[in-house]
Amino acid sequence: MENPNGAQSRIFIIVAIGLVGLLMLGLLSIAGLVVWTRFLAPSETPTVVAEATLPSTPVPGVTATQPPAPVGTPTVGGAPTATRVIEPGASPTAGGETPAPEGGSPTATPTGGDGIPDTGFGPLEAVVGGIVLLVVILFVRRLRLTGQT
Question: What is the pLDDT, as a whole number, of residue 10?
Fold first, then answer.
């Protein structure tokens, strides 16, 4: 039940405006961070701190060893079993003819362009979408309240 003076409606609008304000503050913060890191921050050139070098003199107490010689794998008794041999050029199909791929001959994936195409929402479209959503929410709320007399 709503109060006759409309206190719940005012509270809803105040909370909705506060949430939209927090959303805008967050979006502006992200935009500021992007601008700061990409355009305004000085570019740092990496400097070499130290170079690794191998010692040219042998280290005492360390000797080079050869890897162990390979040892044959033991077999478990008896004669080997017969293995099926496939002749070169034999087709794995029963009809003797290799079927053509469905959909025609395969083609390479097209490449080109300058990278990933621009798709989806940009920052301006996201802000406009948020404002439109807020207007729709407030409009529907007002229609609901005027329908209850």
Answer: 86
Percent of the chain with pLDDT over 90: 21
Measured between alpha carbons, how far is residue 36 from residues 99, 111, 112 in Å? 59, 34, 32
What is the Cα–Cα distance from 106 to 10, expressed in whole angstroms?
64
Would you give the DSSP letter of residue 68?
P
- What is the Cα Rg of the chain in Å? 37
Placement of tokens 């490449």 in the chain: 111
For the chain, the domains span 1-38+126-149
**Residue 82 burial class via C-beta count within 10 angstroms: exposed 0-12, middle 13-18, buried 19 and up:** exposed
Spatial distance between the Cα atoms of 22 and 12, rounded to a whole number of angstroms = 15
- Rounded distance between C-alpha atoms, residue 82 and residue 95, angstroms: 27
Question: What's CA 64's distance to the chain center, in Å?
Answer: 47
What pTM value is reported for the model?
A: 0.28
User: Mean pLDDT over all residues of the chain?
Assistant: 76
Looking at 27-31, 47-51, 94-98, which range is the least confident one?
94-98
Q: Which structure tokens are listed for 35?
A: 């601008």
